[in-house]
Write a structure and sequence with these properties.
single chain, TIM Barrel, eight-stranded parallel beta barrel, 14 strands, 15% strand
Length: 369
């Protein structure tokens, strides 16, 4: 049983994990309190239940009020939020688990509702033509405000402070959410970034903001406590459209990360069918593995068999599971027993309270009420 690649320990200079099963970051919208902080009775229980994972990566946690784009998401920019996360990390560590927090800024994937009527910030004033979910229901996105140099500098500072806050909250590390059509991804992509200054035009310029943030974070926490997530073949959702420079931009960025001593690089396989797009990559792990010398994590629709295979084929070192971790708090134990996995209820992915969050039973029948 334990010969499965997923269940083997993983130890590098940066990481020491009991297995290679990672809980992927997933927005769950349970921070319903006015301070948008995690609570012991919800997030504390939720992450503790899943502490047998080799590594937990939390849901995206906004680095400032300007970073918000979804209802009821917990931040990491206030004292109350830091105190809330402390209880979460303590519970995970008491179970022998390890936990990183995902640092998040949604950029243009937001709505003025979240910003007291002000426009969301983005690299360029281009509407993603998507929708934002607010307490008043879905609302069409708007044309955002192009970030000034002052806005960029402030956002770099916000990420740096958020990383420091994460350490104060007891996290084992942070993951920069540079994926899925959010702020960093918007800078990377030529269809969302039409700037003519030092942050636009060339591939190097469009990657500049990400590296400024990374360099700022490593001033306050060790590089080996930093991970980064990318989605190179995202197309047709989250306002993203690929062009002929999309993959070369990620090739440049991920290759350049060899100059750092990161915990890992976290990549997503395509979320949609991109086989008819001539400049897309359909197998992300296999394409990018030769380009990056460090720990490579892969996710998106993996199951036990495909997760074991991608490690066995040496295309990745770690596999992150999302929806399977919604409904299987004991996913590692189920893999070890080759037991069936429970189905998730998508209707409760983002609803308030315990239902569909901390009430999924384990194989042993345990359930948190």
């Amino acid at each position: 049983m334990t010969k499965q690649p997923l269940l083997q320990s993983y130890k590098t200079q940066q990481l020491n994990l009991k297995n290679r099963v990672v809980m992927a970051p997933m927005t769950r919208s349970r921070a319903t309190n006015s301070e948008k902080k995690p609570t012991d009775e919800l997030q504390g229980v939720y992450y503790e239940q899943r502490a047998s994972a080799g590594l937990i990566i939390t849901e995206g946690s906004q680095v400032s009020k300007r970073a918000v784009g979804y209802i009821n998401t917990p931040g990491i920019h206030s004292e109350a939020q830091v105190e809330g996360w402390k209880k979460v990390t303590e519970r995970v560590h008491q179970q022998g688990g390890k936990i990183f927090i995902q640092l998040w800024h949604v950029g243009r994937m937001s709505h003025p509702y979240f910003h007291d009527g002000e426009l969301p910030l983005a690299p360029s004033a281009i509407n993603p033509e998507a929708q934002s979910y607010t307490p008043e229901g879905f609302k069409d996105t708007v044309t955002p405000q192009a970030m000034t140099q002052e806005d960029i500098d402030q956002t770099v500072s916000d990420f740096q402070q958020a990383a420091k806050n994460a350490m104060d909250a007891g996290f084992d590390g942070v993951e920069i959410h540079s994926s899925n059509g959010y702020l960093f991804h918007q800078f990377f992509n030529g269809t969302s970034n039409t700037r003519t200054d030092r942050y636009g035009g060339s591939i190097e310029n469009r990657a500049r903001f990400f590296f400024e943030v990374l360099d700022a974070i490593k001033e306050v926490i060790p590089e080996e406590k930093i991970g980064a997530r990318f989605n190179p073949s995202l197309h047709g959702i989250f306002g993203m459209t690929m062009d002929e420079e999309t993959i070369p931009t990620f090739e440049y960025t991920i290759t350049k990360l060899n100059d750092y001593n990161l915990a890992y690089v976290h990549l997503s396989e395509p979320f949609t069918d991109v086989s008819d797009i001539p400049f897309a990559v359909t197998n992300i792990a296999k394409h990018f593995r030769p380009l990056y010398n460090g720990t490579l994590m892969i996710n998106s629709n993996f199951d036990q068999d495909s997760g074991n295979k991608v490690i066995e084929d040496s295309d990745a070192d770690l596999v992150a599971f999302g929806k399977l971790y919604v409904s299987n708090p004991d996913l590692v134990e189920r893999f070890a027993e080759n037991a069936p996995v429970a189905d998730w209820n998508k209707d409760t992915f983002y609803t308030p309270g315990k239902e569909g969050y901390i009430d999924y039973p384990t194989l042993a029948g345990d359930e948190t009420s």
